[in-house]
Amino acid sequence: MLLLVVAMALGLFSSRGAIAAACEGKFPNPITDVCWNCFFPLQIGSISISFGQPDNGDPDPPFLCTCPAPPPIFIRPGVGMSFWEPARVAEVVRTPMCSPTLNGSVLADMPFVPKGTNYAHQDTSEQAFYHVHWFQYPVLSWVGMGISQGICFVPEPMDMQYATELDPLWDDDELAFLINPEAILFANPIAQAACVADSLKASVTKFGIDALFWCSGSQGSIYPLSGSHATHNGGVDSTLATVHKHVARMHRMGLAQDTSTLGAMCMNLPQPIVRKKQYKQQMLFPIPQTQKGYGFGAASSFWGAGKEFPYKGEDFSYLIWRKRTCCAL
């Protein structure tokens, strides 16, 4: 909430004129706009319930598990389980502080912040630049699901956790090198050719290869960890790549953690290099995609046709599903 207040305050001091920037959006309907089947696969020990949703290939959690507990108990027994939680919303927009999730509101007028672009050069190359807003989105609590009240649940309010308009590294590829110096290792044809394997696996299984962490499958490379995307082939693919970049950036800065491995069953753990198979996404705006969740790098051709259109369909929001593995009571 503090971040949202700061952004609005900056907007008030920057300009008193009317905000004429284009911003389209609508409030998501938590019943009809959410892919509730994306909650699956649900695993309890080796028992899996999938309802047709793709499995990311993680090992089964142990059926019986223990976690540390405060005295005088010291050790708490439980049952190992894993599921997917709709944890975050990522808005990917061209107009600074435009919020499709908040009914198309421009939260602040920020003329000193660069606007997003997606265009072609005379040499036929294309590139794009987008801003990202990262919201905590506790939709499981809103619909009253019982699992949200169990030991696996981490209570969070709805809040804007991050806005790239306030990050000076987001619109400067050279400054972004400060938080991803390893990018120099992958700026060569061999490293980029390896991304073909990531793209093939993501297209077939809907999840990429964690070891190829610099790749974003069909969307190209995640470097630099900034708002620019050098291979713009349409708004859907470019914004999917931008979401992957932002998630990798959040992990690098310690603002996102490991929630999905067996080591994180009792508590979240630091994860400076994002584990791609911990996340999958579904589009919320402009047209909700509610059939299936797709991991980073999966080809958008399965579902993205017709999701981008002029004027009202050039900014996007995605519901980010995060896998949680835990030792439940």
Radius of gyration: 20 Å
Number of individual domains:
1
Total E-strand runs: 15
Query: What is the overall pLDDT average?
Result: 88
Unreliable segments (pLDDT under 50, ≥5 consecutive)?
5-20
**Tally of helical runs:** 6
Structural class: alpha+beta
Give the SSE order as H and E letters: HEEEEEEEEEHEHHHEHEEEE
Q: How is the biggest beta sheet arranged? A: 8 strands, antiparallel
State the share of residues found in helices, binned by percent.
Answer: 10-25%
Overall outline:
globular
Q: How much strand? A: 15-25%
Distance between the termini: 32 Å
Describe this entry's structure for a reader.
This protein has 329 residues and is an alpha+beta fold. Helix content is 17%, strand content 24%. The protein has helices at residues 2-14, 139-142, 173-176, 189-193, 195-205, 235-252, and strands at residues 42-44, 47-49, 64-68, 75-93, 98-99, 105-106, 117-120, 126-129, 131-136, 159-163, 228-229, 257-258, 269-270, 279-285, 316-328. Strands 1, 2, 3, 4, 9, 10, 14 and 15 form an eight-stranded antiparallel beta sheet that branches. It has a three-stranded antiparallel beta sheet with strand order 7-8-11, with helices on one face.
